[in-house]
Structure formats: structure tokens, C-alpha cells
Amino acid sequence: MNLYQALSAAWPRSGTAIELADSDLAYTWDDLRQGSALLATLFTDLGLQPGERVMLQTEKSVEALMVWLACLRAGLVLVPLNPAYQKAELAHFLKDAEPRLLVVAPEAFHWASKLAFQHEVDWVFTLGTERQGTLLDRATQLLPRLTDAVLPRADGDAAAILYTSGTTGVSKGALLTHGNLRSNAETLVALWGFTPDDVLVHALPIFHVHGLFVASHCALMSGSRLRWCPRFEPVLVTQQLRGATVFMGVPTLYTRLLGFAGFTREAAASVRLFVSGSAPLQAETFDAFTARTGQVILERYGMSETGMLTSNPLRGERRRASVGPALPGVQLRIAQPDAEGVGGVEVKGPNVFGGYWKRPELSATEFTADGFFRTGDLGRLDADGYLHLVGRAKDLVITGGFNVYPAEVEGHLNALPGVQESAVIGLPHPDFGEAVTALLVPQAGATLDPEALLRTLRGQIAAFKCPKRLLVVAELPRNAMGKVQKKALREQHAGLYA
Description:
GMP Synthetase, Chain A, domain 3; 3 domains
């Protein structure tokens, strides 16, 4: 079954589907059908063939969600990108994914289109947050011939490529299929008790698993209404929570809600489920949220390559500092556990991707001989199957729910004037969970200006990848093999943001 069919099966024939939190505008279920049909018709008329890629780098909008639905209907593969990515990052994705069509924000067209045509992209359209841009201008000139048509797709057919950090710092594309995404959505809808009576406050970006697949798919597959927030703002979200039933966020959003005096027990009273993921939830946040609202956050665990893997239960113990047991149908094990039961987390199931785009060598090494995916995370299991994550084998920093690979940032830092070498680490942060932090060793005779270096760096890479602090040091600690000891750096500077 095409994933679009599974998502749209529960849609009513009439009624409101999505309310815009910052305006009086609302979209009906038929708007989603017709809008995705128009876009699917356009993509087909342009000659795009099933399996070809559509790259989307725009700010959050309902129309961007419709692009995803249209790609499903036409059998195309969506490549969603963070709109914060800069030229060098986009160039890598264009070269690697080889999209036929690129959709960008109107203000980015002048530079993104040049890059796209250098990489032989056939079509470049714009899409803005106010329903403007050449994509909609072109699509609305057509009659939606594909109003009810959906291209048949098999479980193994590609639906999306999500780029995630690699062991060398070069982003790699996780190829997710219709079957991967459908099975995960079906499981979560049942596990978390979604019904058509639910109202989900959607305040997440839609370029990664959490916002585009977990939140959106749970609502769409159950026929639940969405309250669509263009971005997270504590005041706006608190207003939208009144009368709503579900909210999903990363830990940073919960700390910011708790920092807003208007977020009270009364404001959260109608919500039956608060879900947290994409980064570890600090125990202090978990406890403070319960004290403020009387509700217990449901923490779950997932990643780009697998969708959701584990979840605390809807009914039952939501265990503090645990991401819960494996989802139904998912096999989870701890490889080579030490004396305390800590080892590598490995998983297998219909939600787990089949491999990386154009990277067969990585696909081979990241899976075990019996088909389990090595997540790169370290964890231990309680006797009743609840998983506790204790660290990451891969040197990844998760800040505000976004993944940052230090090697990539170090490459940019080392190229800056006067920098001899750098080390990028993640340090505990009360708001972001982890803060990207860099230690710089200056070249002989050079004097480094951290603020000037940061200004330069912000023009090269996305803001969320830029270090919150640059610390100038005389040298970096190394082991006998000459490798920088990042564990020692993390311990030394653990209280920097306290």
C-alpha cells in the first residue's frame, strides 16, 4: 500500500484538518486532498518518474506538508532539508541525492538556483510561508487530474531520504520506504491511543523524523486535527494547548515552557499526552514538569534510520530516565554488555531502514550478520525491558533536538585564520540539552577573537551547528596514540553552562 493511502484512509469527507495557530486560516481535509493532487499533477506533468527525488528546503508551512503528500501520491522520493543549511551544505546534498526538482524559500532562490543548475537539477521552484511562490503559481494553473489517483507502491519502495551525520562528518542519506514509515505510524497511533477526537499542537519543524513523520503521521493517520504553529513560542503554544489533547516536543521546548509563567496546570489541563524525544530528557525537567502540571511526560527513543524504536507506555509506568521498552514488532538487544549491562543498542523491525543512499559499504558495516542495525548508542535494559540510554558510541552532539557531528564543525573551524586545531564537544545545557562547544588552539603568534570567528562561521554553516562558546586553549589533551581525549574535555568543562 502507498503510504498516502494509509495516511488518508481515516480522513473525513468534510471538516477542519489543520488550523493555523497564528491566523484565522484553516485547511479542510479536502484541501489536503486537492492540494496534494495539484502538486502531484504538476510533478507528473514535468516528467518526474517514480523513484526520482524532490528536494525541499523551505520554512514550515502546510503547503510544504502537501509537497510530502504529493510525492507519496506520485511515487517520488522526498529529501527534506533544514532551511538553515548554507551553500556548502546544500551543494553536498544536491550532488549526493541528484534531485530532479528543488523547492526553496523565495529569499534563497538567487543563490540556491545557481547551485541547483550547476548540479543539473531540472526544475527549481519557490515556496513561502504565506502561500506564495512559483510552485503554487504553477500548480494552481492545472486541473488536478490525480484527485483520487495514487501510484501503487510496494513496502520496499523508497519514500524519503533523510540526511544524518556520518562517522567522517559527511552527511549520509538514510533511505526510508513506504513500509518503514507506514508500519511505524500504525504502531504509534495504536500505542499512543490516537482517535479522530484528538487535537495535536504541532510546534516542531517538518524536515526531520519527529515533526514530519511522528507528529504529522499520527494525526493524519487517525484523522485528528492539527493546530499548526509556524515555530515554537511559549506564549503561542500555551494558548494553543487549551482544548488540545496532544503535544510533542524536544526537551528544549519543555524547558522553555517551564520558564514561562503563563504555562500553568490549568493551561495544560485538556492535554492527555505530552511526548518528548529527539534528545535526552533531563531528570530535573521530567520532575519539574510533573510538579507544574500534574502530568508525566512520555519519553520515547528513535532516530532517522529507524523511526521510533521504544516508548514509555500510554497507560502504565512512565519511568524516569528511561525511554521505555521496544515498540510492538521491534526487536531490541544490547550487544556485548559490560559488567553493568551497558552495551551497544541494536534493533531490528519493519520500521528499520534498509541502508544508506549510494553507500553500500556503510550499509554493510552498520548491520549485523543477522540483520540488526547498530544504532551507535549505548544503553542497558531493566529486567522488564525498559531501555536506559547512557551515551553514544558515535561522537554526536544533540542540541535542541538537532544532530551535530563534531568532525564537520571542526573542519570549518580549522580552516579559519589563526586556528591551529580544534575540538568540538557537547556539554550539558539547561535549555538545549547539550550545547555545541569548541576549544581552539591558536597558531604560533596568532591571537584569536572568538566573536569574530563565530561571525564568520555563522555564514558558513547552520546556526544550530555553531558553537555556543569558543574557548581558546594552549593545547588539547591527548592519549598515548595522539588522539584528542574528548571525554576529559567534557569532564573538565561540564559546568560551563550551569
